[in-house]
């Protein structure tokens, strides 16, 4: 009997079809995983810097601020803090007024991804000229300096957003989309 070595055309086509179906399901899941990892890492970086700012405020016994900074040296002008993807700084200050009279303690460069980080002030009536996040020597955030930053993926709309929230008691929290903080702040 004569033995054949190799594959028939039908067998080869079946393997290619199975491989194509597997790739069709795997690629979107992989893209979602990458988007979620990016959002989670960016949120964690902001959360860590906010925790650091609160700790330094208590340790130094003075105001410490976390504000949007596109140059890494000073807070951007008040009211320009809509998208924190440009980066931020942690700075000590004499007051919560937009990083005046302080020293930069830490800086975070802009996102390497296309993700967004939209800031919303949680105060009923935010004071003009205040820095988004500010902690006093007791570690509390004055009500005008409370807020949330919602980090979203632009490249993958189905990725769950993350929120970094600072409320009046001063302790930051990370929430996933759909979660609500103990004080009632919702993450979309």
UniProtKB/TrEMBL annotation:
<dbReference type="Pfam" id="PF07963">
    <property type="entry name" value="N_methyl"/>
</dbReference>
<protein>
    <recommendedName>
        <fullName>Type II secretion system protein H</fullName>
    </recommendedName>
</protein>
<feature type="transmembrane region" description="Helical">
    <location>
        <begin position="12"/>
        <end position="30"/>
    </location>
</feature>
<dbReference type="GO" id="GO:0005886">
    <property type="term" value="C:plasma membrane"/>
</dbReference>
<dbReference type="GO" id="GO:0015628">
    <property type="term" value="P:protein secretion by the type II secretion system"/>
</dbReference>
<dbReference type="InterPro" id="IPR012902">
    <property type="entry name" value="N_methyl_site"/>
</dbReference>
<keyword id="KW-0812">Transmembrane</keyword>
<dbReference type="Pfam" id="PF12019">
    <property type="entry name" value="GspH"/>
</dbReference>
<dbReference type="GO" id="GO:0015627">
    <property type="term" value="C:type II protein secretion system complex"/>
</dbReference>
<dbReference type="InterPro" id="IPR045584">
    <property type="entry name" value="Pilin-like"/>
</dbReference>
<keyword id="KW-0488">Methylation</keyword>
<keyword id="KW-0472">Membrane</keyword>
<keyword id="KW-1133">Transmembrane helix</keyword>
<feature type="domain" description="General secretion pathway GspH">
    <location>
        <begin position="44"/>
        <end position="168"/>
    </location>
</feature>
<comment type="similarity">
    <text>Belongs to the GSP H family.</text>
</comment>
<keyword id="KW-0997">Cell inner membrane</keyword>
<keyword id="KW-1003">Cell membrane</keyword>
<dbReference type="InterPro" id="IPR022346">
    <property type="entry name" value="T2SS_GspH"/>
</dbReference>
